[in-house]
Specification:
The chain is 43% helix and 14% strand. The chain is α/β, with parallel strands linked by helices. The two termini are 38 Å apart.
Amino acid sequence: MDVINKYDQVEQHLRQAITAGIYQTDDKLPSIRQLSSDLQVSKNTVIRAYQELEAIGFIYSVAKSGYRVSLAKRSSNQLSTDQHKPIKVDLLSVCKSILTYSSEKELLPTGSAHPNINFPAIKSLYAEIGRHARMQSQLPSHYQIPPGNNLLIKQLLKISHDLGVPAKYNEIAVTHGAQQGISLALRALTNKGDIVAVESPCYFGNLLLMESLGLKVIEIPSCVTTGINPEALAKAVSLWDIKAIIVTPNFANPTGSQMPLENRQTLLKVSKEIPIIEDDVFGSLSFNENLPSLKSLDTQDRVIYVNSLSKTLDSRLRIGWILSGRYQQKIEKYLISDNMGSLNLMQSAVAEFLTTGKYRSHTNRMRRLYQTNGKRLHQQLTHYLNQYPLLQAQFHLTLASGSFIMWLTLPDYVDGHQLSLECKQEKISVYPGMAFGTNNKFNHCLRLTYANLEGSQSEQQAIENLARLINHHCQKQPQSIKQQGSK
């Protein structure tokens, strides 16, 4: 791990602890020596992390006494009985506006989270789909009854085993993407008005699902590096009758966070017997060795595992799968009643493609591409943002160890939704953070993706323009903040 990632990790560790309320206003933070030992990083790395947090007013230093938590910058995400109550979700109108597809070629396509399809394996895949389309025109019409195409199930079983996820042939059901899998799980586990815990920020598709099902959501503070906060989840579990938990341990959307093994084990412990829906759509895109899934660590058969080919092959395939454990019978009943028949053509064609061995080589190639793209975008955007004095030490940009998404946190007075609209005018696509939580709490953030970046000169110019637009918004900061900064 390089130096910048190390000090980012320390910084996010401290943010997480403060957000969770482990350290309250004016509480003394760990000494440089102690934190260096606890996190196994150098003292210089800890010093830099403390300096970054002090620069943005998150903490303050006391001569000969170390660092303490600042009142002014305490995170609004701290879990408390007053602030974090289960609430209804109302995001449909927002998501419809940002999901609208642009027919114009974008100069910087960092909005939608679709994989790169400009590779030979994808051409082979669609050639296989064409062949199966011609073949099926000669066959009698029939439904593909759930759980799905036999050959496809065998291939998905292999992919699951490669990810270290325990599964048997009769435990997998094919779904219409991961989204349907999560929807089926929620219907099996909850009733209208029930409470579901999610990491915050949370993928807007999951929030929309809960809105459509009439569920209430309780948002658990998450670290942009290590994911959902187990201590905050434990507190929520003690306060509320939570019926299910949705979590993405590997590269959560939108932050790209990855839960360490210890956190996964703690999450299973503090969640007691509550069912967990594990969303693993980015799991195959890890740049490092895979960590054990929640499903593999589960000893109570209460984790429902959901995955898909949307992020590794093509989102248009709508091929996902679900391992339902003890809830299998109920979920498959919903699957049959919803679909009756699945997509015969797509399932048979994708199954045949997966037998060729091209999937594994393709995902290896994608991992290398996404890692390169991510580092380049992180480096360039950080460089251009730091050229503006108003933005220096006032932003945080994640760099995930897998997937193709990153999360940009800006000063909390920035209007990310308005910023995204202005970016669109310059053919730059970004997703405003307001879609990834309730009550507009992440409107000062942006989600960026880099699967389809090419590294061209025009693209670099667009990144520079993005930084310029961000700086322009920061110049609109409230007068009260300007006066504080001038003192």
